[in-house]
Amino acid sequence: MAEEPLALRGIVKTFGATRALDNANLVLQPGEIHGLIGQNGAGKSTMIKVLAGLCRPDAGTVGIGGTPLPHITPRAVEARGVHIIHQEALLPPSFTVAEALFLGKEPHHGPFLASRRMRKDAERIIAAQFDIAIRGDALIGELSAAERQIVQIIRALLNRPSVLVFDEPTAALVRQEANRLFAIIRRLSGEGTAIVYISHYLEEVRDLCDRVTILRNGRDVATVDSRQTPVAEMVALMINREISDMFPKQQVPRGAPVLSVRSLRQAGNFENVTFSLHAGEILGITGLLGSGAKDVLQALFGLSRVDGGTIEVRGKPVAIPSPGRAVAHRLGLVPEDRRHQGIAPDISVRENVTLASLFKLTRFGLISARRERQQVDGLIARLGIKTPSGETRLRDLSGGNQQKVVLAKWLSAESDVYILDEPTVAVDVAAKVEIYRLLGELAARGAAILILSSDLMELCGICDSILVMYRGRITRRLSPAETTADEILAAATGAPMIGVDPDAERPEAA
Amino acid sequence: MSGEIFNPAETASFAPETRPERASRRRPSSGQTIRLGSLAALVLVFVYFAYAAPGFTALGNLTNIVEQSAVLALLAFGMTAVIVGGGGDVIRGGIDLSLGANLGLCTAVYAVSSAAGYSDSVSVLLTFGAGIAVGALNGLAVVALGILPLLTTLAVMNICAGLELVLTQNTVISSSSPLLAWISSAAWLGLSITSWTFILTAALMLVLVHRTPWGLRLQAVGGHQQAARAAGLRLSLYLVATYMGAGLLAGLASILQAARLSGSSPGSGDILLSVVLTSLMSVVFSRRLAPSIGGTILSVLFIGGLINGFQLLNVSSYWVNGVQGVLILGIVSLRSLSRRPGSV
């Protein structure tokens, strides 16, 4: 029997207190297409970083071609023939296709670049490998996402790889382009290249892969034959079934609609998005990377323009061209990237809290220190923010408390529509429960809450209703009482279900 | 989605269909638009001067433009190489603010050395040595200490300006060596030595940056560090080389400067604004919206033509500074606009 082309064994990797990989294994057979799946945070990306040599594991071995690597560095990995097609193409946008392909191994006449030959070679290789015409002197920045990916694959192929790793390759592709990519991957596999295929789209994984390894909480919980394993079973393996009473859900009577969205459309990102959010309601929204859910949130807060559809706030049609307008309509956003977008880490808790409501605290154009302090102290007490004082720098607080300060900022601005983007990412479990309790309280006081999360247990635990987006459309509306995380995940990954058109078109990529 | 997507017949029939679609769906390049617009602006300005300024198009005047632009051009080539290798970001990218002061220092070194009686070859070696040393100082501080080029070269600019004052005591030092006399008097095919230096250096830099594997890799180092690292390049070597090359070009320019001024006189550092402008402006003459030697040549001629045209129109040369400032603002804002996601 031939050597294993790639074998990661017993990989352990901890970041601070969290164990991202906990004795994880990934072993490939020669010539197979091997899927790697798992929920967000299951350890997929850490696994790839370890394999790429970008992150040193605490324990475990990486073997390529049957022998373990003594030092796992990017160079050593590449020298042994493992190439990774990253989600974000690592190509210089101001280079031509030919230059990007041959950078580092340029054809030359003596000391001079053989530009013409380089261009011709590039066009010939692209045509021969993929049967499409891309001009060798086209700039990378002018190519479509699919074309850029093809250039990246060919760049890897020029190095005669023994193992090719695809990290979420179809997230940016439209359907037809994805189909062409699958044909390419099959051909490469037929020619003897071992393939690792990482994707959220389980249907793709089932159709394309020979075997699938499922990661959960940093462990490989199973490696299954994908031909004989139903998608539902893979989903069940991906989901952690430990139900805890983390979710103190309050029942709140539903009030009048506060935010109504009809046929909202943004070219390339989402279309026909219709829903309404009522006072006292917590509405969940979820979807995979590229599903458009995040884009909907950003459009609602005025961070990007929509191309069609209507938004009504408290019954009045409004346009939200900027975050300033959103705040004026009493919308508040808790962004995912807290450190860069949600907080100003180097100023005090007090200043952060009143940042969006200073005009309310001024007298004769000057900030009234007394009223500001009252306001801030009140909110610190009400939200249970653990801080020595209002004057503490925000960077010195824990992640969960920082997130509460972001909420306090919008409370101070008297917002009553809260848009939350992954509010519990990178906060510990105790703080998560605190945030859930807080959201419940806000809703009980009549706030309307739209929460985007990829933590499906969380959505099931705190939401009144959950919207699932797939390829730019809302494909399902589920009630937590009657659904399971399995069902949500299945809907988000496009698994066929009764009542859903599994062939719902992807939006055309812009 | 189901198994039929792998039907080979469908896949085969799919590929040819995409060809016309691809071609028509390619985004119009904003780079191409900006480039054509900039070329049109350049042509318009020259047409205006040809029409309005008496004698602008005379052969003698055109060669004059080339000759007067030579010092600026050499420094700008150095600056462009530094920006190519360090990246185009105005704040964090590559930039060499010490070039103007380096020119002054080198001119002073040459003038003092030849006034002290050293032969031309010794003086030229000392001059080039000073230029390269300043470049090496810049390069090492940027690479080894990891200081932003903007700050490093600002500090080195002050060092150079200080050394120049120490050497010259802030006075005019005249020198009349055989080399300077030859540069001022000799001509070939109607062009002066100064003009030939411009032309030959331009050709050399054009080939080096845009026609050799080294140049391509240099562009990768500045334009896309991750891609360059992935291609196994050693970034720091390229960076140090560009700063040292820029220093050498400052040394070469200083000889021309000494010939023009018959020695050294204070105030050479004032050229810095024009150097920064021409290198930044080179970006708008390139389809890639990246700094280029070809774009630098056009920018130098544009600025040279502008100054010359103003002189012929009897417009005060003080206006030139203002116009340059406006051009820098315009170009920098054009670039930040075209980089904003979702625009053009």
Q: How would you briefly describe this protein structure?
A:
Chain A is built from 17 helices and 24 strands. Chain A has about 500 residues and is α/β, with parallel strands linked by helices. Chain B contains 14 helices and four strands.
Report on the structure:
The complex is a heterodimer of chains A (510) and B (344). Chain A is an alpha/beta fold. In chain A, the strands form 6 sheets. Chain A has a 6-stranded mixed beta sheet with strand order 6-9-10-3-11-12, sandwiched between helices. In chain A, strands 18-21-22-15-23-24 form a 6-stranded mixed beta sheet, with helices on both faces. A 4-stranded antiparallel beta sheet of chain A has the order 2-1-4-5, with helices on one face. In chain A, α13 (369-383) crosses α14 (399-412) and α14 packs parallel to α15 (429-444). Chain A starts with 5 loop residues before the first strand and ends in an 18-residue tail after the last helix. The relative contact order of chain A is 0.11. In chain B, β2 and β3 (191-192) form a beta hairpin. Chain B contains 14 helices and 4 strands. Chain B is mostly helical. In chain B, strands 1-4 form a two-stranded antiparallel ribbon. In chain B, α2 (30-52) runs parallel beside α13 and α4 (99-115) packs parallel to α6. Chain B is globular. The longest helix of chain B has 28 residues, at 59-86. Classes of the chains: A alpha/beta (510), B mainly alpha (344). Chain A binds chain B through residues 74-75, 90-95, 99-100, 103-104, 106, 108, 111-113, 115, 130-134, 138-139, 141-144, 147, 176, 179-180, 182-183, 186, 203-204, 207, 304, 494, 502-503, and chain B through 1-3, 5-6, 8, 10-11, 14-16, 18-19, 22-23, 25-27, 29, 31, 207, 211-213, 215-217, 219-220, 223-224, 226-233, 287-290, 342.
